[in-house]
Design brief:
With 301 residues, the protein is of the alpha+beta class. The chain folds into 2 domains: 95 residues, Roll (Thiol Ester Dehydrase, Chain A), CATH 3.10.129; 159 residues, Hotdog Thioesterase (Thiol Ester Dehydrase, Chain A). Helix content is 18%, strand content 35%. The protein has a 12-stranded antiparallel sheet with strand order 1-2-4-5-6-3-9-12-11-10-8-7. Helix 2 runs antiparallel to helix 5. It is globular and about 55 Å long. The relative contact order is 0.15. This is Acyl-CoA thioesterase 2.
């Protein structure tokens, strides 16, 4: 968790939603000597000195969706983070139309900055079809988000730039069911985390926007169950953590401006890497999405 300029922290929550939507507006660009569809996006009101991973995942999903018929929503996205992104530079998205079948479409997306790939993704789209259906159940006894404090309430009086970034720099309202590890380790060493999230403001009705917003938020907390299991916090001296890859499967439609429960657990950490798996539910208990993420986590010996 690196320091950022406090001026990027929006005083008005609706401003954060406006900035999120601004990042989702990708400009088409005429490709040069390529058959790819090309789009350009930017970072608006950066959360960190480097491009936040969830942002470029969401933008990749939007870029790929622009090349597919509207009746084929994105159902999976697998991305590898290859280089850190610079928040001061635009991001160019090249989308390769790998396949368009009767039911499925596949796209490869590369996100570039200054000619170098920072993220490589594969995305799949499908015409909605009936079939077998089951899902894992939503955990029982989880406090409602209205009963939980927001990071703004928890950290508003903490004089620390990292706390200000968490409290005021995000376009999502996160309510922790688990004990937060913003500035100090949790009491229990459990390899799990649960948070409620939604955007601060209302989003358009476009399903592409809501799926992209869910992808955006899904990168916030998967590293936390790994740290919690080992009694660490984001302020651990010498901690170096970065997402290596991230995958998300969307199962059902949901609005990202309504409360969603994100449960995560870490089945393994080894070789300076940690793995986390997540489930995203709506308030009625429907399983909306599943995620997996592997991260590099290094600590001084």
């Amino acid at each position: 968790m690196s320091e950022v300029d406090d001026s990027v922290a929006p005083a008005d929550p609706s401003e954060a939603t406006a900035k999120l939507l601004s990042m989702f507006r990708l400009a088409p660009e005429e490709p040069l000597r390529t058959t790819e569809d090309v789009f350009v996006g930017r970072t608006v009101g950066p959360e960190t000195p480097r491009v936040y991973g969830g942002q470029v995942l969401a933008q990749s999903a939007i870029a790929a969706s622009r090349t597919v018929a509207e009746d084929r929503p994105i159902h999976s996205l697998h991305g590898y983070f290859l280089r850190p992104g610079d928040v001061t530079q635009p991001i160019t998205f090249g989308v390769e139309r790998m396949r368009d079948g009767r039911s499925f479409s596949a796209r490869r997306i590369h996100a570039y900055q200054e000619g170098r790939v920072i993220l490589s993704c594969l995305a799949s789209f499908q015409v909605p079809q009936p079939g077998l259906e089951h899902q894992e159940r939503m955990p029982e006894g989880v406090p409602a988000p209205e009963q939980l404090p927001s990071p703004r309430q928890l950290l508003a009086d903490v004089d620390d730039p990292r706390a200000r970034r968490i409290a005021f720099g995000r376009p999502f309202d996160l309510r922790y069911v688990s004990e937060p590890i913003f500035l100090a380790p949790a009491g229990a060493r459990e390899a799990s985390t649960a948070v409620w999230f939604r955007t601060f403001g209302r989003l358009p009705d476009d399903p592409v926007i809501h799926r992209a917003a869910i992808a955006y938020a899904s990168d916030y907390t998967p590293i936390e169950p790994i740290l919690r299991r080992h009694g660490k916090s984001w302020t651990e001296p010498g901690l170096a953590a970065a997402t290596l890859d991230h995958a998300i499967w969307w199962h059902r439609e949901a609005r990202a401006d309504e409360w969603l429960l994100y449960t995560q657990h870490s089945p393994n950490a080894s070789g300076s890497r940690g793995l986390a798996c997540g489930r995203i539910f709506d308030r009625t208990g429907r399983l909306i999405a599943t995620t997996t993420q592997e991260a590099m986590i290094r600590l001084p010996e």
